[in-house]
């Protein structure tokens, strides 16, 4: 299955991109890393995981995996 990705920019390392994702409450499974060849990485965010228009956490009890009570 192929996914479309939104470009989120270049980061100095994969770990710094993961830190950015955790700070912004992005699921790490939605990230796609591409090495630039100069030690930096370009990060893409899966479009289905990028739902800025929805208040997802409040509607689903703060859970991002789709299972809630």
Tell me what you see in this structure.
The chain has 69 residues and is of the alpha+beta class. The chain has two helices and three strands. The radius of gyration is 13 Å and the shape is flat. It starts with a strand and ends in a 10-residue tail after the last helix.
List the helices and strands and how they pair.
Blueprint: E1 5-11, H1 14-23, E2 31-35, E3 41-46, H2 56-59
Antiparallel strand pairs: 1-3, 2-3
What fraction, in percent, of the residue positions are helical?
A: 10-25%
Number of helices: 2
Terminal-residue CA separation: 30 Å
* Number of DSSP strand runs: 3
Please tell me the overall pLDDT: 78
Shape: flat
What structural category do the secondary elements indicate?
alpha+beta
Which residues form runs of ≥5 with pLDDT under 50? none
- The portion of residues forming beta strands comes to 25-35%
Q: Please describe the biggest sheet, giving its number of strands, its sense, and whether it closes into a barrel.
A: 3 strands, antiparallel
Largest beta sheet: what is the strand line-up? 1-3-2
- Give the topology string: H per helix, E per strand: EHEEH
Radius of gyration: 13 Å
């Amino acid at each position: 299955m192929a996914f479309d990705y939104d470009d989120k920019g270049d980061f100095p390392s994969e770990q710094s991109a993961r830190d950015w994702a955790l700070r912004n409450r992005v699921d790490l499974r939605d990230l796609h890393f591409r090495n630039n060849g100069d030690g930096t990485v370009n990060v893409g965010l899966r479009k289905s995981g990028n739902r800025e228009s929805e208040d997802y956490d409040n509607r689903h009890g703060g859970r991002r995996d789709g299972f809630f009570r």
